[in-house]
Amino acid sequence: MRKPSHRSRALLAVLAAAVLGVGGCDAAGGDSAGPTAARKATRASPTPAWDRSPGSVAAVGDSITRGFDACAILTDCPEVSWATGASTRVDSLAVRLLGARKAAERSWNYAVTGARMADLPGQMARAAARRPELVTVMAGANDACRASTSAMTSVAGFRASFEDAMSTLRRTLPRAQVYVASVPNLKRLWSEGRTNPLGKQVWKLGICPSMLGDADVLDSAATLRRDTVQKRVEAYNAVLEEVCAKDERCRFDGGAVYDYRFGTDQLSHWDWFHPSVDGQARLAEIAYRAVTSGKG
Question: pLDDT for 37-51, tens place per residue?
């Protein structure tokens, strides 16, 4: 057999090196990470740690966060807001996180009674100007509480507005944390409130007519109407959870507000629909548990 030439020996060496490279067998053994895995490990960024003690809080949302009907009929009462209120009867999220003195200086309430999800981007822009470390979101009830079921905000529209609100915040504050509360169970609120004659009279002024209208009518049409509203609320909550899950600094409450069984003590004795002072305190507890839990 002819002795291999210098060029042949060089070719064999290159082929051998290629085979060893494809097989992943090197001096470190078969379990070692190859160059591709090493590059992926270098590129991968860890999920940022959730700060369970933020230094400032801004709230956006609707009448619930404004403490509507908690202190007087058809009136906001932000001092008992679950998110930023100063009342010792509520012990709001801001007070629990910051202490009373700091909460008075470092928490802001931009919620507006009657607001829908489409209003949230504007609220979020105002909140972001304060540069809070935590933003609380509670919105969606008014998107379902319309004059009729056909007037409810579409699920697609609800999603687009919430995504817009989150983008608005992120353009200014990419590192701010967000706590998102689920939309309450409106059908359960109807079921509790309809036992009170005064509450039903106040409902006739136009409070959530899609759910509360003709409160004592239980025929098939009324049942279908209420079930339609309830399904829309559940769809809204699915959107809140899905959009929040895409943001690494966002926490959804897991449906805790929706699941909470508001009783007569937790409902306003002015309208038997909005949270009372005690109901606001329960919302503050739910939020505090979510914000300070060890998950994430």
Answer: 444 444 445 567 899
Q: Which two tokens stand for residue 260?
A: 């909470």
pLDDT reported for residue 100? 98
Say how far residue 21 (Cα) sits from the centre of its chain.
49
Contacts of 270 (CB under 8 A, 6+ apart): 69, 72, 73, 74, 202
**Residue 283 contacts residue 275 (beta carbons within 8 Å):** yes
pTM, rounded to two decimals: 0.83
With contact defined as beta carbons under 8 Å apart, do 82 and 95 qualify? no
End-to-end CA distance of the chain: 68
Residues in the chain: 296
* Host H or E run for residue 61: strand 57-61
Residues 6+ apart with CB under 8 A from 155: 232, 235, 236, 239
Cα maximum dimension of the chain: 109
Is the pLDDT at 31 greater than 50, yes or no?
A: no
Pairing of strands 177-180, 134-138: parallel
Q: Higher confidence at residue 68 or residue 295?
A: 68
- How would you classify residue 266: left for phi > 0, otherwise alpha for psi between -120 and 50, otherwise beta? alpha
d(CA 123, CA 56): 17
What DSSP letter does each residue of 198-221 carry, written as one string? HHHHHHTTTSSHHHHTTTT--SHH
Which residue type is seen at 100?
A
Q: Say yes or no to pLDDT of 84 above 50.
A: yes
- E-assigned strand segments in 72-207: 107-109, 134-138, 177-180
Residue 72, helix vs strand vs coil:
coil
